[in-house]
Amino acid sequence: MMRKKILFFSILFFLIYFFIYPIFFIVYQSFFHQNKFTLELFKIALTNYSIRKSILNSILLGIIVVITTSIIGIPLAFIFDRINFKGKSLFRILFLLPMISSPFVGAIGIKQVLSRFGSLNILLIKLNLIKNPISFFGSGFSGIVILQTLHLFPIMFLNISSALNNYDISVEEASYNLGASKIQTFLRITFPLILPGYFTASSIIFIWSITDLGTPLVFEFNQLISVKIFHMLKDINTNPVGYCLVFMILILTLPLFIFIKRYIEKIPYTTDRTVLRIVEKNLKGKSLFLLYFFFSLILFFSLLPHFSMILYSFSKKWFFSILPEKYTLEYYKIVFSHRLTKTGILNSLIYSSLSTTFDIFLGFLIGYILARWKIRGKNILDIISMMPLVIPGIVLAFGYVVTFSNTILDPKNNPVFFIILSYSLRRLPYIIRTTYSSFLQISENLEEASYSLGADNLITFKKIVFPLVSPGIFAGGILAFAFSLMEVSCSLILAIREKFYPISKVIYTLAGRVTDGPNTACSLGVLGMIITAICLFISTKIIMKKIGEFFRIG
């Protein structure tokens, strides 16, 4: 029992020191100046018009993206739950493809298509549908909304699909029998029963949207709180208002986590009898054709950033034309030969591999503790280990820079440790959730039977435990690796010097250069997209029915 306590408190101390402590330091610096309590930083921030506008813009952005992803994701989830059609499994995988590339990378390519003199405007002018180019992006805000919506709607789709898996269709039938219309039934019966999934998806999407750093930087839209924090970090010692802005992000994110974790889960959303599944309707003929057309339309627009990025990576000449006039492979040669791009690829592979290895080791231990051990303080470990889902990367990276500056671990001198740590902590919940779920499905009697036959802990682990939980761990590890590889916020903030740049920082640097910079950036983005797609495909093949678990809070 003593060894268990030592291991438990060691893990808890590690998470508190490297996750909770940096956040606490930010909160402390927001309210205390020279060890004296003050609200001066908040006064300065809220009286500054530019900062006020950035805060309001960020909140508005999050709300709009939640609405737009709901419009796409909810109908898709219901279609897949209630209709049977050929190619269903294939389309389910295809609708996850928008997540294989960050909107930050896709924004580089989409600007070439939807800009004032981009492909779409040229096409509309040639078709005599318009006379003057249309500004699809405006100041850049609408472009951010478009890119984030196309990237994040699969999270809404996955969570609503997961909620519908446990849905009892008999409650709807009872509603219809009592004379309720379809709209009344949806608003009073169906939607309330899938609220856990909807709240979880909305929270993740809202938090991701307001803290997205890469996409606003590509669109050069500075009136968002994430961009303000990024620029203020450079002179945080002389202008500590940045602490206040990070604290405001925490105010927007942590209450959502607490609300879902503590209140939504306590409300009964299930019936007390065996779930009666819906009989799927078979589609044929014209109805099936219309469904395929609807799916194709969504896929076309959601993958347009990816297509445009691929085209841009091959384009030798693409100006005032619908498609590139000349194609070339030279930008891919640069990716594998240029010093900066080679450094970025190697660094990302090292960072992601090490962070994933650490995730698998720590995630397995925490999942096992939560599922098997009866120890005081287990609920605290559960809450802290799930918090990275709602603590944005920009907050964590900011916390590392300001908390550990001028120490032995100073990230300004060598950020490798904190880059790996930030990658790892942000993906740790993926491994914990799959491991925990796997242990809940494994009877403890199997382990007890092994012990009764004379096997020790090591043999029981090798022969019984690990083979049963390995699929979930493997799938979670692959997904953690893929998302770490293209991590944006932590990479942009922590990697200050070129020799430490990961792929995302290299892409951001190249995108700002003239001539071949954006083309090379897209080529590097395509490489990352291919790796992510392979990883996502393998994960979905292993645990297709549980893939939505990676994007749940409660």
At a glance:
It is built from 25 helices and six strands. The chain is an all-alpha fold and 554 residues long. The longest helix is centred in the first third of the chain and has 34 residues, at 49-82.
CATH superfamily: MetI-like
CATH architecture: Orthogonal Bundle
Give the percentage of residues in beta strands: under 5%
Average pLDDT reading? 85
Major sheet strand order: 1-2
Count of DSSP E strands?
Answer: 6
Give the overall form.
Answer: globular
Q: What integer value in Å does the Rg equal?
A: 25 Å
| The CATH top-level class label | Mainly Alpha
- Class computed from helices, strands and strand pairing: mainly alpha
Distance between the termini: 29 Å
Polypeptide structure, described:
By secondary structure, the chain is mainly α. The chain has one domain: MetI-like fold. Helices cover 70% and strands 2% of the residues. A hairpin with a 2-residue loop joins strand 1 and strand 2 (36-37). Helix 1 (2-31) packs across helix 13 (241-263), helix 5 crosses helix 25 (517-542) and helix 7 packs antiparallel against helix 10 (195-211).
Record the SSE blueprint.
Elements: H1 2-31, E1 32-33, E2 36-37, H2 40-47, H3 49-82, E3 83-84, H4 88-94, H5 103-114, H6 119-126, H7 141-165, H8 170-177, H9 182-193, H10 195-211, H11 214-218, H12 225-232, H13 241-263, E4 281-282, H14 285-302, H15 304-314, E5 315-317, E6 326-327, H16 330-335, H17 339-372, H18 378-386, H19 393-403, H20 416-440, H21 444-452, H22 457-485, H23 489-494, H24 503-511, H25 517-542
